[in-house]
Structures
1.
Amino acid sequence: MKIGLDVAQTSAERAGCAWYADALARALVELGRPQGHAFVLYHQFGDWINGEPGHGTRLTGKGITMPLLHTLPVPARALWRAIEAGTADLPDAPDVVIASSFHAPRTPGAKLVYVVHDLVFWTHPQYATDATRLVCQRELGQALGRAAAFLFVSESTRRDFESLFPGWLAESGTPHAIASGASRWPAVESPTPRAPDAPWLMVGSLEPRKNHLTALAAYEMYYASSEHPRPLHIIGGRGWMSDEVHARIDLIAARGWPVVYRGYLDDRELRTAYRDSFALLQPSWHEGFGLPVLEAFSQGLPVIAADAASLPEVAGDAAILCPPENPPAWSIAMLELDRDPTAHARLGAAGLTRANDYSWQKTARTVLDLITKLS
């Protein structure tokens, strides 16, 4: 079977969905090529057109092609419009195409498998820009008519889908599966001691859904109450409606309190940040999966996470869970974890165990099993 993979998002500054597309592509190729499958990587996909597609995921070897790796925006747009109109074929003629970027273009001659990362653009529209909300609603609507199968990144996301489209999966008979993510890095063998000044860490684009304001309010309370307060490092690209967060960071830093916005980090720098930190704060209002939780677990880093959406499902009993709307609860959890080395070590070990419950190899097997049923 020849499998098309949408890796368009990997050509831009990467967030969770792009890392999912990258890691899934690598795992599918590793598992699928020995079974005789071939792969086509699409760096321009549907309406997701990149200015510089060559920055995206690159995989080479027998049975792998990347026909749009160097295709510039104007010809890429023209090609996908022609494919949509039925006057052009999909490059390299795959049998199935896995769409990971929320886009659901026509895929003539191939069965479309659509990945649902989250449905926040419908369930929590206040956490999506108007442009994103409209595009994602349109594309999911198209997927309902075009997809031969669906992949959900968590049971929580599948439940959101069922709440929006009650009974649709069963009535339509559309195959589907839970294809969770995993840490992109191997798990460390055991948690390592953290430096006395190791910082609290928050990872995620600065946008309303990530709830940086609760983390910052909790940090202020923690800092005022702790005898030896740790710094707070915030990592992530500058997202939309982030001015208030940056203003709050600047205000706290102006007092001499150690809150540092480090911006977007590449893969190597981010892994180092996890290894050098004290604990991860993940107070998101909503996550389709919450990849930073598993990334932290894999590096032996304890986690305090929101008790909302998919985060309890992913974290299991390996994290401290707090309401995302309650900064005092977060502050108390931070103080208790800071003062109790035994609890810190216990959570680090529990996180490692939890991280090992997830792997990209398992996810790739799930996806290949689903695709096989479509042939």
2.
Amino acid sequence: MKNRSAAQRRSPFAKAMLICVGIALFLGFMALGSWQVQRRAWKLDLIARVEQRVHAAPVAVPAPGLWPQIDAAGYEYLPVQAHGLWLDKQSVLTKALTEDGAGFWLMTPLQLADGTQILVNRGFTPEKLRAAWLQRIDAAKPATEPVTVIGLMRMSEPGGGFLRHNDAAAGQWFSRDVAAIAQSRGLSRAAPYFIDLGVPAGNPAHADSAPATAELRPGMTVIQFSNSHLVYALTWYGLAAMVVVAAWLVRRHDRARA
């Protein structure tokens, strides 16, 4: 009995389970590899799109009639400029994690002459200044001096952050959700996008961008993106190939011991 081969000791059920596990692993690894290939194509398109746009001269923000057509592929990271009045009292602070550490984005609506509003990310402020900013927002008075805003168009970030949902009632914002912020602040004609204040160096309007201060740092839009998806894809495909080799070795071993 003790000298029976491994192939003889392995029951039909165990063989079936090994086959099922092997097939599942192979298909899973292949699917993950293909997903990374798709992600790589998306990332390359994003990098090319951003590189092409961020150095262009700013154009006027899209008119309300164009709002239904606005999407990431056609407009995100496009340099734009707008002229209007700050609605400081309708500002909100949204959670941010940047190269400067944790803190908040100061999101303030800009009221345009046609009565529409555009949320503007005026920059990053450290976490320790949250209470001071909330007091300043609460005490803000209506602006009387119009300003010109130059920055990059960004798409709304609905829902919230990872495992964290925006809570308008509590003033807790974990993403720049334009529709939710507009509703909570009473903005009846808000654009479906927001603007990151400031444009990168090399843009013709960079000199006109808002300067950074100790309290607020604009121009922190991430425009450099890592692209390791090919490495990930090859890793997953390599694991799928290892499953095939392992199955072949097991089969060869079973036949040799039979």
3.
Amino acid sequence: MAAPPCSQSEEGNSSNQEAEGPGTSQEPAGDEAPTAAAAALQEKLADLVEFLLHKYRAKEPTSKAEMLREVLGGDEEHFPVIFREACECLQLVFGVDVAKAEPNSDTYVLATTLGLTYDGLLSPEQTIPKTGLLVVVLAVILLGGDCAPEECMWEALGAMGVRAGSEHFIYGEPRELLTEAWVREQYLEYRQVPGSDPPRYEFLWGPRAHAETSKMKVLGFIFKVNRREPTCFFAF
């Protein structure tokens, strides 16, 4: 989840360079131009994600005109791809959806994804929504047959750099989230496996998760994650 986005452009550049053969090394200026352009787009993507997160925290709508004016320097040509990548990053990493306020308008509102109402922002000092990780946890439970042993949960989350007892740069200390905060908010159940000795623990969906979202919505989220290259996720 910490890999930079827009890798397809970079891969395309490298394949083009290989196809052109060794003679291209004699023209460094031509090689540098695509790299500089890709870096510029990445920077605009980073700025747009940060801008949209600010709008989410402030509970303010935004518009295409405002994004072009305040973030993208009027770059109409690249707006569609930058905006699409920013929206996917917000949903998959932070659990925030960007949607049109009206079907035919250029005004957008931001809300937590999949109908969930909790984002983990408990104070003004906390600035990063954690709903994206909650959806991943719910998905792991769902794929485990509605129940995930604790060791399996940490193995799955470890694959994306989220480890118990280790501070994550986006989500903070995950053990506290999974075994305390989200249990308290009734999104998860954390219980001892019946008859286990020594005691082992497992995670299940809590009543609030069942009330606010559905298995079909979470499965749709899983499908969307799996069809994307890992490099669609953004490094902060």
4.
Amino acid sequence: MIEKKIQSSEGTVYYWTNELDVRNEFAIVFCHGLTANHTLFDKQVQYLSDKYKLITWDWPLHGKSRPYTNFSFTNVNEELLTILEQENINKIVLVGQSAGGYIAQSFIRDYEDKVTGFIGIGTTPFGKGYYRSSELFWIKHYSTIARLYPFSYYCKAGAKAITLTEEARKSMYNTLLHLGKQDMLTATWAVYDEFLKVEDEVQFNCPVLITYGEYDKTGYIKKYCNNWAEKRGYPLKVIRNASHNANYDNHEEFNELLDNFVQSIL
């Protein structure tokens, strides 16, 4: 994967992509979760880089894409659109893990003509109709609560809580440690503040696949995903032997699901 970047008035955003032998205006775009970075999808890159055009990125306030001012879903959408234009990509499948699913849903809402498919990994839907007020309260105050913990403890406990395998846990721990406490707090506050502003559910005009890990104990992820799939009739797949970072924990199963999903669209 080749590291590249774009520049806007809000900051510099970094992304990584592969070069294929043939010109391809289609790509799979991966959106990592909150406080993670592009390395969350290393296993997908290893498996698919010879087959598809891939784009991983550190979306604003994460990884190398710091500092970043005036964070909003709208601004993040514009950054991704600029990346696609720079790479001459016209159609994408979006893969969003956890809060990366919010980034994906927001982009689909604004630029649905660019998106031919969406896969959610342990993510939840836009639209306050899915959530109780008590659940939204904890989302609103997450960064305030996280501030109370020593950061070394937060990194260890946080990585352990969302992974099942030692390799996935080590990767997430290093990502959190590199982010730092202040930037972790900044990112969580900014993203959840944006999420809480969204009133309406996204209407997808493309194929959708909802997934989560068999042992995902993050919040009410399983309940939200099951309700989402049941309400809208979207297919749902539970990834075996995996937690919240299911695409890393059981990358073999997820990679096969992703490949089959993309092939059904192309």
